[in-house]
From TrEMBL:
It comes from Imtechella halotolerans K1. GO terms for biological process: protein catabolic process; proteolysis. It holds the Pfam family ClpS. Keywords: Hydrolase, Protease. InterPro entries: ClpS_core, Ribosomal_bL12_C/ClpS-like. This is ATP-dependent Clp protease adaptor protein. Residues 18-83 form the Adaptor protein ClpS core domain.
Length: 91
């Protein structure tokens, strides 16, 4: 096996090991669209358009993945959403 093939193999193994987590936002009958949009902009660094699209998906589908990444980054973001009265979890 050449050194180039060995390096490519190592990179593929590293990529497979890194598990991406998600913040999933769930629909509720309490929060307004404006509140959800504002919180997604604040907690998840969404643009206004991204936040609006996620809010619509949550409303019609019941849930939406609003952010992906490392658990260490997502946990505090999810806590902000929960403290704001939204229903969310990191999976």
């Amino acid at each position: 096996m050449s050194s180039k093939e060995k390096i490519q193999e190592d990179v593929l193994v590293e990529e497979a090991v890194d598990k991406q987590h998600e913040i999933v936002l769930y629909n509720d009958d309490v929060n307004t669209f404006d509140h959800v949009i504002e919180m997604l902009i604040y907690a998840c660094d969404h643009t206004a358009i991204q936040a609006e699209q996620c809010a619509i998906l949550v409303h019609y589908k019941g849930q939406c993945t609003v952010k992906t990444g490392d658990y260490e980054d997502l946990a505090p973001r999810c806590s902000v959403l929960l403290e704001a009265g939204l229903s969310a979890e990191v999976i």
